[in-house]
């Protein structure tokens, strides 16, 4: 599996603070997402899944960590407009409640059009079309004309084929229909009402055929556009193009030398290179500033958390340790602020390496100088003095790298500018032309010969094409005559329908008058009469939509003819053939822009609806007219219409019926595979995640506690939280049994309290667990696993080919020691009740090997009790 990474998340943290209490909603979330891959985020409510999704879309701006989308950084306190546009276009979100996600005052067309306009997608396509539109439409004029006529013929044939059987049949049937008193009212009514039902089905089929033909015609234009750009043309056409290019070249060489000609071409190339070089450097500088700002904000945030931890601590050792943490994080943020001003040419990778070195230095410094300092008088000043005098981080290596990067950029710019100056000098210098008038006359003769060959072949093609077009036009005339004949038959059928309908209601009226004495029967007959009239009125209104849709389709065909360049232009009629063509070539993109833009928008919206299994006609309805499943499909269509790289699906099936859930999940899975889109699937439904996801991340209290391939995690769940989560899933095999009362015990958290160190361990080739070493040994023992390793970012990077992409890590484990910041767990002595308080972090330096064997948790508890006593 070697697909590209489209989303890379490293150390994403989102904390919420309130009255001095810190809630770590997302704590060091790290994983990657690849093209066409689906990653499932699983956890109970409050585990932080939605916070991760919202942070990725920057619904929360103030989060720490790094998010790279399709190779571009989109995280940081501030991002440029260009980065924001890149983010908005390439990552979309599907929300839990489809009704709340849609604007009830806008129809579906307006809703789906909005992302096309906001992200500039339609504008890009229009600009691309008009780059060579005139040349394409001139080159394929007769081909386009023939295909358009074939479309018209196909539309007429689809109408006549269905209508020529339908109307004669019903005209004869209506002649035989009479009110039969032996039949009940419903049968008498259906005898003639079925005409409207079948007519609607016929007209729907006709409209579908017409839509299909228009789509094929637009696709045909793009096919020929591709052929033209790839020079897949006839021999005569290619020969003429080459002869024109040779003539233009010789014409220029009669005025300038070969050296000047080459310099002129090279000048454009060098200017573009310089422009691109400066553009890349500006993006690199922006990433540089953003990356440094991110790290500064992260360490300032850690410093504030440590401050809150020490101020709320009741233990002097905890207080001192958190104070050391606070000061050292402040020191690191100041150093990074200083480095930021000096090293402005480092790349993201180089900055990351620099920060890793700084983390390692701070860890060693803490263990060497700060760990030995115990609580004593004037300890605060001692810690401050130690950090101030002895914390001397050297980054000379990166100063050299920055200088070399700066010099390399300056050298490259200077070199290009010098080359541009030299090329301009060559162009302006007086030199003898490389070609003579004789050479120009030879090139002109070659061009004329190529033009003669082209004109001869074109004349043959036109003659042949004219006969084909004439045959198609004859068929169109025949079908048109037949169509007009069928229109008159339709009028007869409609008249017959009205006649039979009136007879039915006359008979019904008589029955109503006869039943006046029986009030119950009278009311029932009146009610039936109203129901029948309403059904007919509704059906007739529905049938009116056929004529409206045909009218819109004719407008679309008119716009397609403009796109193909086969519509008779007013420019030619007003300005004449030659001058009119000149105006059309240079100004048609402004004249036709609006029509073609609307056409492209409409076809894109129709295609998006079809992709999610909805009809084109639904584009003009409003959200309240759809069911929950249909609304969710519309939300999916809106997410896909901008062709994103990543979709975040936040509980997309939670509010749907069980029968609809399977449809939506299958739809999402198929679309991700077909369009090569990466998806983060957030859900509570474990069975759905197992079905749809390639990899899973199990989240609890903002942490990823277990991760790996879906198969390995589901077949061998090892973390206590994961096991409890899976126990909560009801099974059909146990349908007769009562649901097991599953309690999400937090006992495993007691073992992660200071001084125990929870870290990420690799227990299998595609399986990761987060816990202390003792916990990991205990959890993997029932599965017969004896060996496991501490996971590193490098290991997980190298294992992508075996589908191991999850790289969680705890950045703070390295600063200033490898002790995890863990929420305080208080144990009530009398009730043994566990209470979690997230208002400070229990983080202390590592213990010696001899200390690790002692029952530290119990000692900590006794300390607390003795202080309270």
Automatic annotation (TrEMBL):
InterPro entries assigned = AAA+_ATPase, ABC_transp_ATP-bind, ABC_transporter-like_ATP-bd, ABC_transporter-like_CS, Oligopep_ABC_C, P-loop_NTPase
Instruction: Return the Basic and acidic residues bias intervals.
Output: 803-815, 849-859
**What is the E.C. number?**
3.6.3.-
The residue range of the signal peptide is none
Q: Where is this region: Disordered?
A: 796-817, 838-869
Check the record and name the Pfam families matching this protein: ABC_tran (PF00005), oligo_HPY (PF08352)
Which one GO biological process term can you cite for this protein? Answer: peptide transport
Database matches in SMART domains: AAA
Residues in a coiled coil are 462-489
Keyword entries, A-Z:
ATP-binding, Coiled coil, Hydrolase, Nucleotide-binding, Transport
**PROSITE patterns named in the record:** ABC_TRANSPORTER_1, ABC_TRANSPORTER_2
> GO terms for molecular function, please?
ATP binding; ATP hydrolysis activity
Q: For bias kind Basic residues, which ranges apply?
A: 860-869
Q: Does the keyword ATP-binding apply?
A: yes
Q: Which residues form the ABC transporter domain?
A: 7-726
Q: Which family does it belong to?
A: Belongs to the ABC transporter superfamily.
Q: What is this protein called?
A: ATP-binding cassette domain-containing protein
Source organism per entry reads Mycoplasmopsis caviae
Lineage runs:
Bacteria, Bacillati, Mycoplasmatota, Mycoplasmoidales, Metamycoplasmataceae
